[in-house]
Amino acid sequence: MNTTERLENLVKWGKAVEALRSGYREGALQTDHPFGMALARARGINPWFTEEQILYALNGIAHMLDEQALRSWLAAYPELGKFPQKRLDIGLVLAGNIPAVGFHDILCVLVSGHTAQVKRSSDDPILLPFLLDVLAEIAPSMASDIRFVDRISDPGAVIATGSDNSARYFDYYFGKYPHIIRRNRNSVAVLDGRERIEDLQALGSDIFSFYGLGCRNVSKLLVPMGYAMDDFFMAMESYGGVIRHNKYMNNYDYHKALYLLNQEPFLTNNFLIVREHESLATPVSVLHVERYTDSADATSRLKRDRDRIQCVVGVGHLPFGTSQSPGPADYADGVDTLAFLTGLGNPAQKG
């Protein structure tokens, strides 16, 4: 199958996913429809995967498969269509922190012309196989390039995503193969005090989508010295519904009690805890704030943490509200997955 045919099938796939998503949201699909049953099974396995969050994730996938977005992405890879000279079986080890989070790696394999054996996360075993079933109705031979397995066996290369702890395991077992191994990352928003209330409300999506569990969720704010949080908290009010999620509420109650017990200062609006701390990583329901003196200082702090930052939102960076809407060219950890895959088979390629 040539690149043009693959592109056409991917566009059809995106339209099919959007039709299912919008049809379900509008009530045109019943709960006994295969799509409705897949959503119910996914929610039953992982309580963080609410119907709203799954549909939000599928909306992002449909946009990633938009024809213009795909053409713009693939135009940067003129070698596509010439490679691979030898098809390799790529091992994909996927995370499960947000719905269908491994989709982009699967997309890159499909575009590259390789095949993949995919080790799913036990937290997200339903959604990606369902999406591949949708593709199989459009392009059976293309969908057959992706196989779900319990164990990666003799891969030609490996792309593995996990925590800092699991990355050590991946390094040990897969280090002899060409590889991309991803570790913990978090995202940051830079405020300068001139944000409109609409900007801050959009920032709320960057913080609260997927309950803050994604590496592209903002977990930390960089704010100027003397910045008051009043407007920020006012803008967050529309996201107060997160506290109705039992697991989110349990996290909020636990960390609020912990900080009170330890006499650590914090601010709260009864569903989000904001505390001053330089760490990027935060528990669910907690947001860290660090203050900077001027723009040079803010830039310095971003450079300090660049190996642990997934993305940055704010003036001069990603627009507020877009951190969880990556396009196909927005690679995790800034590592070009498609260039890695198209380079496999070249004697100069190294892991």
Write the layout of secondary structure elements.
Blueprint: H1 3-25, H2 34-45, H3 51-64, H4 67-74, E1 89-93, H5 103-112, E2 115-119, H6 127-138, H7 140-143, E3 146-149, E4 157-161, H8 164-174, E5 179-182, E6 186-190, H9 197-208, E7 218-224, H10 230-236, H11 246-261, E8 267-268, E9 273-276, E10 286-292, H12 295-304, E11 309-314, H13 337-343
Parallel strand pairs: 1-2, 1-4, 2-3, 4-5, 6-7, 6-11, 7-10, 9-10
Antiparallel strand pairs: 8-9
Q: Alpha-carbon distance between the termini?
A: 27 Å
Strand tally is 11
Largest sheet: 6 strands, mixed
The CATH fourth-level homologous superfamily of the largest domain: Aldehyde Dehydrogenase, Chain A, domain 1
Strand order of the largest sheet: 8-9-10-7-6-11
Mean pLDDT: 94
Instruction: Using the CA coordinates, give the radius of gyration.
Output: 21 Å
Number of domains: 2
So what's the CATH class of the largest domain? Alpha Beta
